[in-house]
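Hello Y.,

Per our agreement to keep a running log of every chain we model this quarter, I'm adding this entry. I've kept the format consistent with earlier entries: sequence first, then predicted structure.
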Amino acid sequence: MPPVMPCILASFYWLCGDDRNGVIVLFTCLQGLSISLTIAMVLSEAQRIGRYWFGIVIVAIGISVNYDSLFQITHDHGILLGVVAAIYFLLVKAQHQATRSTAVVQGFCGGFAALCSPICGLVWASGLSMFQWKRLRWVMIAGATSVLVISPWMIRNRLALGRWVPIKSAGKFEVYFSMVVDDDGIVDMNSFQQHPWLVDNDTRALYAKLGESAFIDHFDPQIREKVMQEPMDCVSRIANRFLSATILWQPLLVDQHSEWFIVIRSVVFAFPFYGLLVVLFKSKDRRCMRESVAAHIYIAGLLPYIAITYYERHGIPLIGIKMLLVLYGFETFLGSRSEPVDRDGGGQEAVGLESQQLLNQVDGFRIDNST
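Predicted structure for the entry above:
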């Protein structure tokens, strides 16, 4: 797995003297900080576009329907929630950064995001390349810095696993698990019974016998056979994951929730995707940079899971981005403007330039009259 989470837990155990309760308290505080950063991101954006109270409503609903995932489960998704919020700020601020030092900082943060999750690293790298492609030299410096940041972990993987693994090595096994083991391509508790994360099962015993690398390669023939003999079933599983990630909420444990909660959350779950469609169908001259960044993070953050494997936990880090897309979607309908406005600061600069030109004309008129 990516190294940041084990390092955080190891440092917490060191600080607490191996006291498990102390580690739980520290990790809960860290998860709370991540949630707070996400809330601040949404509310600051709501205030910027003049929809602060509407932003409060969106945050209240978003936190309420995801309460169990955010406050009753401790997993890496709680930390990744803050990482995704940081990626949003990094990509938005990148357009105002031009020096080598800012490229190095951007690259260091991007590399750290990749060490938290390879998907987060992919979201950052693809976003930076997409939105800043005109500044190729600056992007290359940031990219080179990020590679330097993740290089020690890559070297460690080469020495420990005998192969070059960028961040984590479980990708092929996840393909096997969702394409062969699970019945519809969306992992649930029934299929999880065969996952090696459980100690007492055959898959775990096979992992202990073969080791990491051999265990991953062991399933290659079954994956190839599945793709070659049942290609339409593979496509159907990918389609199921797309629907489960965007429109149709499918909890890991259905019996854990009441019927009325399932109905409410299923309705709310689809709103971010509808907000995404609204943002994408807006003309480019009416779509601000922040809307494009949020749309990119949503798409790039879900596509790998749709292609490989997906269940409820994989969408939790995108809760803040989903709330932003709902905000942008409703703002388009409620606050549409008659003329395009660059809401990222460019409009203010243009107004300032026009004012300065007008003052220069007035000064010139006064000089002419005095002569």
